Amino acid sequence: MKGRFTIERIPAPLASLYEKASRLVIRTYYSQVAEDILSRCSHGLILDLGTGPGYLPIELAKRSPAVRIIGVDLSRPFIRKARANAAGAGCSERIHFEVGNAAHLRFRSRSFEGVVSTGMLHVLRDPVSVLRECWRVLKPGHEAWIYDPARVSAYVDAAEWKASLDPFERLMNRLLPLFVRLNPPRSLTRQQVAAWIRQTSFTQYTIEGQGNEFKITLIKQSETQGNGHDQKLQWKEP
């Protein structure tokens, strides 16, 4: 999938629009994703790719004192906001945010007990490289979870969101349709996602349908399980 024209990061003038929408769905979306993740990984170091304003890492930290989280995003405005949000929530000591590219992570191999991303896969220029990085930085026997496209917009109260916008943000909102036309979202299929995964070292995975969102679970086999590509794709419907 290299070479697809896409803007992987949300442009700085539009970042506050996204941040305010994300803030409105902390309880209805991010808290639920956090509970789902912690049911599979309740301790250790977790990596959040495309962390945005940091609400998922904050919800993870609030629910489990045994986890630490690193959030990575291409957007500097998001990282600045995420750090401020973590400080406001009183959990900065267990969360670190930094600017970074998910296709070229700086972390050592086998560093994390879990890797997660929400709403990032469908906008990537090179999704296979990102999935390979997920495999590389995961510890054997652990999992990555990809929720895509994130169902954030489905839970946003549009009237409340628009009422929260300042004059500059209202102007940017009028320009948002132009950005969408220039950078149309990709609609993923199970077959497409499975083809990407087959180009990585992940051999055990599930793709579950959740409304209009996929939840993809990628399992890095432990060293005692072998490395053969003999696992079959499991599709689970809602």
* Secondary structure tally, helices: 9
Distance from N terminus to C terminus (CA atoms, Å) equals 28 Å
Q: What spatial form do the alpha-carbon principal axes imply?
A: globular
Q: Strand order of the main beta sheet, please?
A: 3-2-1-4-5-7-6-8
CATH architecture: 3-Layer(aba) Sandwich
Point out poorly predicted stretches.
Answer: 1-5, 227-238
What Rg is obtained from the alpha carbons, in whole angstroms? 17 Å
Helix content: 25-40%
For the sheet with most strands, the description reads: 8 strands, mixed
Q: Domains counted in the coordinates: how many?
A: 1
Counting helices, strands and paired strands, the structural category is: alpha/beta
How much of the sequence is in beta strands? 15-25%
Q: What would the CATH topology be?
A: Rossmann fold
User: Mean of the pLDDT scores?
Assistant: 87
Oligomer designation = single chain
Annotated CATH homologous superfamily: Vaccinia Virus protein VP39
Question: Tell me, what is the CATH class?
Answer: Alpha Beta
Order of helices and strands: HHEHEHEEHEHHHHEEE
Number of strands: 8
